[in-house]
Amino acid sequence: MFSGIIEEMATIVAIKHEKENIHLTLTCSFVNELGIDQSISHNGVCLTVVCIEGECYTVTAMRETIERSNLGLLKVGDSVNVERSMIMNGRLDGHIVQGHVDETATCVEIKDANGSTYYTFEYPFNKAMAARGYFTVDKGSVTVNGVSLTVCQPTDNTFTVAIIPYTKENTNFKYISVGTIVNIEFDILGKYIARLQSIIK
Questions:
Q1: Which segments carry the Lumazine-binding repeats (predicted)?
Q2: Which CATH architecture has domain 103-200?
């Protein structure tokens, strides 16, 4: 479980393909604090640490994860938003994030807002998925590349988020341009409500 508050950006130093899996080796400032089997969010995807060597650690993404996320597009040298799992006696500064990316979205517009920045993302509309809670609502929560954000101006297949300068500088939002593919996780509360409504109809 995560909060969507990014700790820092890790750098990919190696990528290994093995059958349908991808092994990503990364480096960041807290590698010496990690342990095998620990869960870390990478661009919003919860992955398990499988190896630690020196200043680097390795995680594995399976086919299901690769198909639903942008991890398969990553290259050596790319910066990845990382967050370690929540400590249950701490404050929930973002919102409840599972680390289970639902799908990808494409950045279709970026606007300056006198210091802050508005990003608009588009994803394929699927009526059946929307009925299961895969949608956004105005002032609701959404996770983009692991970052907890507030939705504005949602449509059936787009939403906009406003990024303050600190977030832009300290996450890989600084590298997003029109056409960039990002990971999105819809609000888990919306999914449960949608599921409940479908059951009690």
A1: 1-95, 96-197
A2: Beta Barrel (2.40)
